[in-house]
Specification:
about 25% strand, about 150 residues, Aminopeptidase, alpha+beta, 5-stranded mixed β-sheet
Length: about 150
């Protein structure tokens, strides 16, 4: 994959099938499962201009090889929003080739353009490959996430 053939862009409404393939692989990576109603709702939200959820895809030679979902949210600490990079996935055959870095940088640029103060994201503690990349792009916050599911 030549760097010049990598294109980062918003996902199009006619790309549900390739998006869903990447999304399914991402969920499998994290051993997660979501029902079709959540998939449908997510797809609809990604294309609703009133919802602050966005998706970018990485395309190489006409094939989608990566995706990211990100959302803007208000903060009590800044005037502008924060940007939460919620999901990031690169297809196995494209890993180690700059796709993840390019997707994060594209989200950072979109966030700057939207007046966001920062982007932030999470990963699993044992996701060593991703953490190697993330350590070159951002600093760890030192905070521990707690979760209460309803």
């Amino acid at each position: 994959m030549a760097a010049s053939s990598l294109v980062i862009r918003p996902v199009r409404t006619d790309e549900r099938e390739p998006w869903e393939g990447l999304w399914s692989d991402y969920l499998d990576f994290y051993r997660a499962s979501i029902g079709p109603e959540v998939r449908d709702a997510t797809w609809a939200r990604l294309h609703d201009p009133l919802v602050p959820l966005h998706a970018l895809v990485a395309e190489v030679e006409g094939r989608l090889v990566g995706l990211t979902h990100y959302v803007y949210h208000a903060s009590a600490w800044t005037v502008g929003p924060y940007c939460y990079l919620q999901d990031l996935f690169t297809a196995a055959e494209a890993r180690g080739r700059g796709v993840g870095r390019a997707l994060i940088e594209a989200v950072a640029e979109a966030a700057r353009s939207a007046g966001a103060n920062r982007i932030h994201w999470l990963t699993m503690e044992d996701n060593a490959a991703a953490r190697t990349l993330y350590d070159t792009l951002a600093s760890r916050s030192g905070f521990i996430q707690y979760r209460r599911i309803f």
